[in-house]
Amino acid sequence: MIIPVFNAVDHLPECLQSIADQTIGFANIEVVAVDDGSTDGSGALLDVWAERHPGRIRVTHQANSGAPGGPRNRAIEMAEGEFLFFADPDDYLGTEALERMVAAAERNDSDVVLGKIKGVGRKAPVTPFRENVEGGDIFSTKAVWTLTAHKIFRRSLVMEHGLRFAEGLRLAEEQVFVVPAYLLARSISVVSDYDCYYLVRRDDFPHLTQQTPDPVAFYDNVRDVLDIVTARVPPGEQRNTLLYRWLSLEVLGRFGNGFVGLPQETRAHHMRLADELLRDFFPEQLVSQLPPLASLRCLLISEGRLEQLTALTTLVPKPKPKPKPEPNAKPATDSGPQPATEQHVGPRPAPAVSGPRVNVRPVRGRSALTRILAVGRRRIRGRGADLVPGAATEPVRLP
Q: Which helix (H) or strand (E) holds 244?
């Protein structure tokens, strides 16, 4: 169990206790915790636990590195167990998690095991955890839709291929570790019938995923991951299925309703770097399968139309208000399966393609989209010429 720790003293005991309570037996677990320059007493707390459980918990202290990648890499070098699991200090595990996941690895000779992730006050991936998988691959498990490190990895795979996390990066630093592990694994198993890992939102513990990344470092990291994918998966439908994930989340995900609050120079930087990724990695056949507004985003990025792109990012539907319950009304019963977190699990099948992406074709309904952009531009002008970085944006209904 590898835990990078920075200023998590209020939540760390719950995480550690959930590990000590594992049904696999604490005697079968080695905890390697790296105190990344904590200033709130987390380091001292780890030392107390290490003294209480000699030989089970190993602690090392270092100057703050600014991100979890470095501490995780240091712990990998220290670890001696057959399997590695990466936990965050503000989360916790289900009691049977390690027993079930290790059993799946041993049954199927799997190098990677995905245990169901349960969101507590925040979203968690849904698509990979719809059913148990006994020894699949990155395609059959849809593992690409969960790229956090909260999984079991066979240590021999990690050491043989020198898999390590990106250091100093505050977002998506796990992908250069997780993605090649998926692609190199002999098999991947999924435990979906038990909540293995609880991903918790803490109001007093800000998550790095909620912060705005440095554009250069972020896009360089995404490029490194896409280089891995394109080097190991030949052009065609399977590669496009994987690339769709990065196109829809990492690339176009930077151009949501928070984009308008960034300084103009930063917005222009994002657009330029995103355009380079679009041209280098995403074929036209894949882009053409996007929903109309997403295709339009790609078009505006490729044409360098920053004003129109910014206007478009302000136009998101207003959520429908939840109906207020009637007085003395009975609680609603379960009406069946709930909507998935991800609306799109992959593109429609596309023919095999090769080579770099060509210019994006304009989407249909250009006159309607022109009206949409006009509304967005009016909204921006209504805020004044100077946009405050980080300012909240009020969504509007699409015309």
A: helix 237-245
Question: Which among 282, 267, 148, 279 is positioned nearest to 215, based on CA atoms?
Answer: 267
Do 45 and 6 contact (CB within 8 A), yes or no? no
- Sheet of 57-62: strand order equals 2-5, 31-36, 57-62
Amino acid identity, position 341: T
Q: Are 219 and 273 in contact (CB under 8 A)?
A: yes
pLDDT along the chain (399 residues), means of 10: 97 97 97 97 97 95 95 97 97 98 98 97 94 96 97 98 91 93 98 97 61 83 96 96 95 92 95 97 92 92 95 70 50 37 42 38 48 55 41 35
Residue with tokens 């939540």: 11
Please list the alpha-helical segments (H only) found in 132-197.
155-160, 175-184
| Burial tier of 250 (Cβ tally within 10 Å: 0-12, 13-18, 19+) | buried
d(CA 244, CA 256): 17
